[in-house]
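hi! just following up on the protien thing from before. the input was this:
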Amino acid sequence: MSDDGSRPGDTMRERSEGSALKHWFLLNANRWLVAGALMVFVFGGLLALSALSPVSLRALMGEKEPVHTLFQALVTALITGVTLVVTINQLVLSQELGAVSDQRERLEGSMAFRQDVEDVIDAPVGPPEPASFLQAIVAASADRALDFRDVVEARRDEAFRERVDDFVDNLTTHADAVCEELDDAQFGTYEVLKAALDYNYSWKIFRARRLETTHTDEFDDEVRDAYDELLESLELFGLAREHFKTLYFQWELINLSRAMMYIAVPALVVAASMILFFDTGAVSGTVLGIDTLVWTVAAATTVAVSPFLVLIAFVLRIATMAKRTLAIGPFILRESGRGEEIDWE
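and the predicted 3d structure came back as:
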Protein backbone atom coordinates (compact mmCIF):
# COMPACT_ATOMS: atom_id res chain seq x y z
CA MET A 1 0.00 0.00 0.00
CA SER A 2 2.85 2.39 0.75
CA ASP A 3 5.34 3.77 -1.68
CA ASP A 4 8.41 2.90 0.35
CA GLY A 5 10.09 1.36 -2.65
CA SER A 6 9.70 4.56 -4.66
CA ARG A 7 10.70 7.00 -1.92
CA PRO A 8 13.97 8.85 -2.55
CA GLY A 9 16.60 9.20 0.15
CA ASP A 10 16.07 11.70 2.93
CA THR A 11 19.43 13.42 2.51
CA MET A 12 20.85 15.03 -0.59
CA ARG A 13 23.77 12.60 -0.44
CA GLU A 14 21.35 9.64 -0.62
CA ARG A 15 19.58 11.25 -3.57
CA SER A 16 22.83 12.01 -5.41
CA GLU A 17 24.34 9.99 -8.18
CA GLY A 18 28.00 9.11 -7.97
CA SER A 19 30.27 8.27 -5.08
CA ALA A 20 30.31 9.73 -1.60
CA LEU A 21 33.77 11.17 -2.34
CA LYS A 22 32.44 13.05 -5.37
CA HIS A 23 29.53 14.46 -3.35
CA TRP A 24 31.89 15.49 -0.53
CA PHE A 25 34.30 17.14 -2.97
CA LEU A 26 31.59 19.09 -4.82
CA LEU A 27 29.50 20.21 -1.85
CA ASN A 28 30.48 19.30 1.69
CA ALA A 29 34.23 19.90 1.71
CA ASN A 30 35.68 23.19 2.90
CA ARG A 31 36.39 25.28 -0.20
CA TRP A 32 39.89 26.17 0.95
CA LEU A 33 40.62 22.49 1.43
CA VAL A 34 39.41 21.82 -2.12
CA ALA A 35 41.57 24.65 -3.44
CA GLY A 36 44.53 23.23 -1.53
CA ALA A 37 43.89 19.78 -2.99
CA LEU A 38 43.82 21.26 -6.50
CA MET A 39 47.12 23.03 -5.82
CA VAL A 40 48.69 19.78 -4.67
CA PHE A 41 47.34 18.11 -7.81
CA VAL A 42 48.84 20.79 -10.06
CA PHE A 43 52.18 20.71 -8.27
CA GLY A 44 52.36 16.92 -8.23
CA GLY A 45 51.20 16.70 -11.84
CA LEU A 46 53.98 19.01 -13.01
CA LEU A 47 56.58 16.98 -11.12
CA ALA A 48 55.21 13.74 -12.56
CA LEU A 49 55.20 15.09 -16.11
CA SER A 50 58.76 16.31 -15.72
CA ALA A 51 59.82 12.81 -14.69
CA LEU A 52 58.04 11.28 -17.70
CA SER A 53 59.30 13.86 -20.19
CA PRO A 54 62.04 12.57 -22.52
CA VAL A 55 63.70 16.02 -22.47
CA SER A 56 64.67 17.71 -19.22
CA LEU A 57 63.47 21.21 -18.41
CA ARG A 58 67.06 22.38 -18.02
CA ALA A 59 67.86 21.20 -21.54
CA LEU A 60 64.82 23.00 -22.91
CA MET A 61 65.85 26.17 -21.09
CA GLY A 62 69.14 26.04 -22.97
CA GLU A 63 67.41 26.00 -26.37
CA LYS A 64 64.41 28.33 -25.73
CA GLU A 65 62.61 30.08 -22.91
CA PRO A 66 59.53 28.01 -22.00
CA VAL A 67 59.46 29.35 -18.43
CA HIS A 68 59.39 32.99 -19.50
CA THR A 69 56.71 32.25 -22.09
CA LEU A 70 54.61 30.42 -19.49
CA PHE A 71 54.77 33.15 -16.88
CA GLN A 72 54.12 35.90 -19.40
CA ALA A 73 50.86 34.13 -20.21
CA LEU A 74 50.09 33.70 -16.50
CA VAL A 75 50.59 37.41 -15.82
CA THR A 76 48.06 38.20 -18.52
CA ALA A 77 45.66 35.61 -17.11
CA LEU A 78 46.01 37.02 -13.59
CA ILE A 79 45.15 40.52 -14.72
CA THR A 80 42.17 39.11 -16.61
CA GLY A 81 41.17 37.25 -13.46
CA VAL A 82 41.10 40.48 -11.46
CA THR A 83 38.83 41.93 -14.14
CA LEU A 84 36.59 38.90 -13.70
CA VAL A 85 36.44 39.58 -9.97
CA VAL A 86 35.27 43.12 -10.66
CA THR A 87 32.56 41.68 -12.92
CA ILE A 88 31.46 39.30 -10.17
CA ASN A 89 31.24 42.16 -7.71
CA GLN A 90 29.18 44.17 -10.17
CA LEU A 91 26.82 41.21 -10.54
CA VAL A 92 26.32 40.97 -6.78
CA LEU A 93 26.06 44.72 -6.24
CA SER A 94 23.50 45.07 -9.03
CA GLN A 95 21.06 43.21 -6.77
CA GLU A 96 21.58 45.79 -4.02
CA LEU A 97 21.43 48.97 -6.05
CA GLY A 98 18.13 50.60 -6.91
CA ALA A 99 15.75 53.44 -6.36
CA VAL A 100 13.92 53.94 -3.06
CA SER A 101 10.73 52.56 -4.59
CA ASP A 102 12.54 49.35 -5.52
CA GLN A 103 13.98 49.02 -2.03
CA ARG A 104 10.53 49.66 -0.51
CA GLU A 105 9.03 46.95 -2.69
CA ARG A 106 11.74 44.51 -1.56
CA LEU A 107 11.14 45.38 2.08
CA GLU A 108 7.37 45.06 1.79
CA GLY A 109 7.73 41.70 0.08
CA SER A 110 10.08 40.49 2.79
CA MET A 111 7.77 41.65 5.57
CA ALA A 112 4.73 40.08 3.91
CA PHE A 113 6.56 36.79 3.57
CA ARG A 114 7.63 36.87 7.21
CA GLN A 115 4.04 37.52 8.22
CA ASP A 116 2.87 34.49 6.23
CA VAL A 117 5.53 32.34 7.91
CA GLU A 118 4.63 33.67 11.36
CA ASP A 119 1.02 32.64 10.74
CA VAL A 120 2.19 29.14 9.83
CA ILE A 121 4.57 28.70 12.78
CA ASP A 122 2.01 30.33 15.12
CA ALA A 123 4.48 32.87 16.51
CA PRO A 124 4.01 36.62 17.01
CA VAL A 125 7.51 37.26 15.64
CA GLY A 126 9.49 34.86 13.50
CA PRO A 127 13.14 34.03 14.28
CA PRO A 128 15.58 36.51 12.69
CA GLU A 129 18.36 33.98 12.01
CA PRO A 130 18.05 31.99 8.76
CA ALA A 131 18.75 28.64 10.44
CA SER A 132 16.14 29.19 13.16
CA PHE A 133 13.70 30.56 10.60
CA LEU A 134 13.98 27.45 8.44
CA GLN A 135 13.89 25.24 11.51
CA ALA A 136 10.60 26.82 12.61
CA ILE A 137 9.00 26.17 9.20
CA VAL A 138 10.20 22.56 9.13
CA ALA A 139 8.88 21.97 12.65
CA ALA A 140 5.56 23.55 11.65
CA SER A 141 5.28 21.23 8.65
CA ALA A 142 5.79 18.25 10.97
CA ASP A 143 3.12 19.53 13.38
CA ARG A 144 0.66 20.09 10.57
CA ALA A 145 1.39 16.64 9.17
CA LEU A 146 0.49 15.14 12.56
CA ASP A 147 -2.71 17.20 12.60
CA PHE A 148 -3.52 15.91 9.13
CA ARG A 149 -3.04 12.31 10.28
CA ASP A 150 -5.23 12.87 13.36
CA VAL A 151 -8.06 14.03 11.13
CA VAL A 152 -7.63 11.17 8.67
CA GLU A 153 -7.65 8.48 11.38
CA ALA A 154 -11.42 8.87 11.71
CA ARG A 155 -11.92 7.88 8.05
CA ARG A 156 -13.14 4.45 7.02
CA ASP A 157 -10.85 3.90 4.03
CA GLU A 158 -8.05 1.72 5.40
CA ALA A 159 -5.81 2.21 2.36
CA PHE A 160 -6.09 5.99 2.76
CA ARG A 161 -5.18 5.80 6.44
CA GLU A 162 -2.18 3.57 5.76
CA ARG A 163 -0.85 5.84 3.03
CA VAL A 164 -1.26 8.91 5.20
CA ASP A 165 0.48 7.12 8.10
CA ASP A 166 3.39 6.24 5.85
CA PHE A 167 3.59 9.77 4.45
CA VAL A 168 3.41 11.46 7.87
CA ASP A 169 5.90 9.05 9.48
CA ASN A 170 8.45 9.81 6.77
CA LEU A 171 7.82 13.57 6.91
CA THR A 172 8.07 13.88 10.69
CA THR A 173 11.17 11.67 10.94
CA HIS A 174 12.84 13.65 8.20
CA ALA A 175 11.77 16.97 9.74
CA ASP A 176 13.28 16.00 13.10
CA ALA A 177 16.58 15.13 11.43
CA VAL A 178 16.68 18.42 9.50
CA CYS A 179 15.82 20.45 12.62
CA GLU A 180 18.72 18.76 14.40
CA GLU A 181 21.03 19.66 11.51
CA LEU A 182 19.93 23.29 11.76
CA ASP A 183 20.74 23.55 15.48
CA ASP A 184 23.54 26.09 15.97
CA ALA A 185 24.10 26.34 12.19
CA GLN A 186 25.45 29.76 11.23
CA PHE A 187 24.48 31.47 7.99
CA GLY A 188 27.47 32.09 5.77
CA THR A 189 28.55 28.50 6.23
CA TYR A 190 27.30 25.70 4.01
CA GLU A 191 25.65 23.92 6.95
CA VAL A 192 22.42 25.96 6.75
CA LEU A 193 21.93 25.31 3.05
CA LYS A 194 22.99 21.68 3.41
CA ALA A 195 20.19 21.03 5.91
CA ALA A 196 17.67 22.96 3.78
CA LEU A 197 18.63 20.99 0.68
CA ASP A 198 18.29 17.73 2.59
CA TYR A 199 14.60 18.48 3.22
CA ASN A 200 13.09 17.33 -0.09
CA TYR A 201 9.90 19.34 0.15
CA SER A 202 9.23 18.85 -3.59
CA TRP A 203 8.73 15.14 -3.07
CA LYS A 204 6.56 15.75 -0.02
CA ILE A 205 4.31 18.13 -1.95
CA PHE A 206 4.03 15.59 -4.74
CA ARG A 207 3.06 12.81 -2.33
CA ALA A 208 0.51 15.02 -0.59
CA ARG A 209 -1.09 15.97 -3.89
CA ARG A 210 -1.06 12.33 -4.96
CA LEU A 211 -2.97 11.45 -1.80
CA GLU A 212 -5.54 14.08 -2.63
CA THR A 213 -6.09 12.97 -6.22
CA THR A 214 -6.12 9.26 -5.36
CA HIS A 215 -8.57 9.59 -2.44
CA THR A 216 -10.69 12.55 -3.46
CA ASP A 217 -13.82 11.05 -1.87
CA GLU A 218 -12.17 11.08 1.57
CA PHE A 219 -11.41 14.81 1.45
CA ASP A 220 -14.27 16.47 3.27
CA ASP A 221 -13.96 20.01 4.67
CA GLU A 222 -12.09 18.94 7.81
CA VAL A 223 -9.54 16.84 5.94
CA ARG A 224 -9.09 19.47 3.26
CA ASP A 225 -8.41 22.21 5.81
CA ALA A 226 -5.69 20.12 7.46
CA TYR A 227 -4.30 19.18 4.05
CA ASP A 228 -4.21 22.81 2.86
CA GLU A 229 -2.40 23.90 6.01
CA LEU A 230 0.22 21.19 5.56
CA LEU A 231 0.70 22.09 1.90
CA GLU A 232 1.03 25.77 2.83
CA SER A 233 3.88 25.04 5.26
CA LEU A 234 5.76 23.01 2.63
CA GLU A 235 5.30 25.71 0.00
CA LEU A 236 6.57 28.41 2.37
CA PHE A 237 9.60 26.27 3.15
CA GLY A 238 10.33 26.12 -0.58
CA LEU A 239 10.17 29.90 -0.87
CA ALA A 240 12.34 30.38 2.22
CA ARG A 241 14.91 27.90 0.93
CA GLU A 242 15.13 29.67 -2.44
CA HIS A 243 15.50 33.05 -0.72
CA PHE A 244 18.31 31.92 1.55
CA LYS A 245 19.95 30.04 -1.32
CA THR A 246 20.08 33.30 -3.29
CA LEU A 247 21.55 35.14 -0.30
CA TYR A 248 24.10 32.35 0.17
CA PHE A 249 25.16 32.58 -3.49
CA GLN A 250 25.71 36.32 -3.10
CA TRP A 251 27.63 35.71 0.14
CA GLU A 252 29.88 33.14 -1.50
CA LEU A 253 30.50 35.29 -4.58
CA ILE A 254 31.58 38.15 -2.33
CA ASN A 255 33.90 35.79 -0.41
CA LEU A 256 35.24 34.49 -3.71
CA SER A 257 35.97 37.96 -5.07
CA ARG A 258 37.76 38.99 -1.87
CA ALA A 259 39.77 35.78 -1.79
CA MET A 260 40.85 36.14 -5.42
CA MET A 261 41.93 39.74 -4.85
CA TYR A 262 44.03 38.73 -1.85
CA ILE A 263 45.66 35.83 -3.67
CA ALA A 264 46.12 37.58 -7.00
CA VAL A 265 48.71 40.04 -5.62
CA PRO A 266 51.29 37.47 -4.37
CA ALA A 267 50.56 35.30 -7.43
CA LEU A 268 51.28 38.27 -9.70
CA VAL A 269 54.49 39.05 -7.80
CA VAL A 270 55.70 35.45 -8.21
CA ALA A 271 54.82 35.33 -11.90
CA ALA A 272 56.50 38.68 -12.60
CA SER A 273 59.58 37.65 -10.62
CA MET A 274 59.97 34.50 -12.69
CA ILE A 275 60.04 36.69 -15.81
CA LEU A 276 62.31 39.45 -14.52
CA PHE A 277 64.69 37.83 -12.06
CA PHE A 278 64.74 34.07 -12.55
CA ASP A 279 68.15 32.69 -13.58
CA THR A 280 68.53 29.04 -14.46
CA GLY A 281 72.18 29.06 -13.48
CA ALA A 282 71.35 30.09 -9.91
CA VAL A 283 69.39 26.87 -9.35
CA SER A 284 71.38 23.66 -9.26
CA GLY A 285 71.32 20.19 -7.74
CA THR A 286 68.52 17.68 -7.26
CA VAL A 287 65.95 16.90 -4.56
CA LEU A 288 64.53 13.37 -4.37
CA GLY A 289 66.03 12.67 -7.77
CA ILE A 290 64.28 15.64 -9.42
CA ASP A 291 66.14 18.69 -10.68
CA THR A 292 65.79 21.66 -8.32
CA LEU A 293 64.89 23.75 -11.37
CA VAL A 294 61.77 21.63 -11.83
CA TRP A 295 60.81 22.01 -8.16
CA THR A 296 61.18 25.79 -8.41
CA VAL A 297 59.21 26.18 -11.63
CA ALA A 298 56.46 23.80 -10.43
CA ALA A 299 56.10 25.67 -7.14
CA ALA A 300 56.03 29.08 -8.84
CA THR A 301 53.48 27.86 -11.39
CA THR A 302 51.24 26.50 -8.64
CA VAL A 303 51.32 29.84 -6.82
CA ALA A 304 50.64 31.72 -10.05
CA VAL A 305 47.54 29.65 -10.89
CA SER A 306 46.23 29.58 -7.31
CA PRO A 307 43.59 32.31 -7.92
CA PHE A 308 42.16 30.23 -10.76
CA LEU A 309 42.09 27.13 -8.52
CA VAL A 310 40.28 29.07 -5.77
CA LEU A 311 37.76 30.18 -8.38
CA ILE A 312 37.21 26.55 -9.41
CA ALA A 313 36.75 25.45 -5.79
CA PHE A 314 34.05 28.02 -5.05
CA VAL A 315 32.23 27.80 -8.37
CA LEU A 316 32.06 24.00 -8.19
CA ARG A 317 29.82 24.20 -5.10
CA ILE A 318 27.72 27.09 -6.39
CA ALA A 319 27.15 25.43 -9.77
CA THR A 320 26.35 22.06 -8.20
CA MET A 321 23.82 23.61 -5.81
CA ALA A 322 22.24 25.60 -8.63
CA LYS A 323 21.87 22.48 -10.79
CA ARG A 324 20.29 20.48 -7.99
CA THR A 325 17.76 23.21 -7.17
CA LEU A 326 16.75 24.50 -10.59
CA ALA A 327 13.06 23.74 -10.09
CA ILE A 328 10.82 25.09 -7.37
CA GLY A 329 7.72 23.28 -6.17
CA PRO A 330 6.70 19.69 -7.03
CA PHE A 331 9.11 19.32 -9.96
CA ILE A 332 11.76 16.64 -9.55
CA LEU A 333 14.34 16.92 -12.32
CA ARG A 334 16.74 14.21 -11.21
CA GLU A 335 15.75 10.57 -11.37
CA SER A 336 17.72 9.89 -8.19
CA GLY A 337 15.56 12.47 -6.42
CA ARG A 338 12.37 10.78 -7.52
CA GLY A 339 12.89 7.11 -6.85
CA GLU A 340 11.00 4.44 -8.71
CA GLU A 341 7.61 4.93 -10.30
CA ILE A 342 4.75 5.01 -7.81
CA ASP A 343 1.96 2.58 -8.48
CA TRP A 344 -1.02 2.94 -6.18
CA GLU A 345 -3.54 1.56 -8.61
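Residues 4-337 form one domain.
The mean pLDDT is 83.
cheers
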